[in-house]
Amino acid sequence: MRRPLSSTNSGKQSKEVDSKLPQRNRSDTAQRPDSPISYAITFESGSLPRRLFFVVIGLLTAHAILSVIHYEFVRLPWLFRQLFDLDEENNLPSWYSSIALFITSIFLWLCAREKQAIGDAWKRQWKILALGFLVLSIDEVAGMHETFNSVVKINWAIPGGLLAVIIGFLFLPFLLDLERETAKLFVISGVIYVGGAVGVELLAVPLRVDSLQYYLMTLWEEGMEMIGVLLFLHALLRYMSGQHRNQLKVTAIVSD
């Protein structure tokens, strides 16, 4: 007959079995209720502008095709044309432009936060750029420049162009201190954007609004604006990722 295990032996065996089991880290299984939760998004710096580029091409192509069909072949319903009309508000192109400007504003703000943390001399300029792109994003939806035209007889593009030139001169020291390739792309993107928003806008003034020529001019204007923002975003993400096409990681921390 087998002898029953004593309580002492049973306790020893229990301890031996427990010691062989993998120990779980309490931090993995339990988290303080008041601790923040972080979410991370990692992507290549060139992937976002590349995908947005195809969206821009699609919107510009839709506007061009619908305009040619409407004025050269058959009149299309207004509700259908308005959905892709680059000259209208509250539709797909204006929604995209607002989102693209807002995304650029967010990355500029993140860059400004980093510059402030390290005590960079140009942190204020990064903050101003973030605020400027945020205002442009709001304007795409709210149409503040259109309101300006309804109040004042002068075309908004004239004071807007002068303001762009003044800002360009004020930011010249900032640009000269940047890495050369980034500064060059910032300047080129700004010239393209302002050239479309101001230059082409003024060229379209004499044209009859309800005409194919006007809508093709609108295609030129809005296309330059979209490409200008996209090029700026590309340069900014390239700069933030270390100028070597590294992966860019954005972490959001949510807490009470």
First-to-last CA distance = 65 Å
Shape: globular
Instruction: State the order of secondary-structure elements, H for helix, E for strand.
Output: HHEHHHHHHHHHE
Number of strands: 2
Name the structural class: mainly alpha
Spatially, the strands of the biggest sheet line up as: 1-2
The count of domains is 1
Q: What's the alpha carbon Rg, rounded to whole Å?
A: 28 Å
Helix content: 55-70%
Contiguous uncertain segments of 5+ residues: 1-31
How many DSSP helices? 11
The fraction of residues in strands falls at 5-15%
Structure in words:
- The chain is mainly α.
- It has one domain.
- It has eleven helices and two strands; from the N terminus they run ααβαααααααααβ.
- Strands 1-2 form a two-stranded antiparallel sheet.
- α3 runs antiparallel to α11 and α8 packs antiparallel against α10.
- The N terminus is likely disordered.
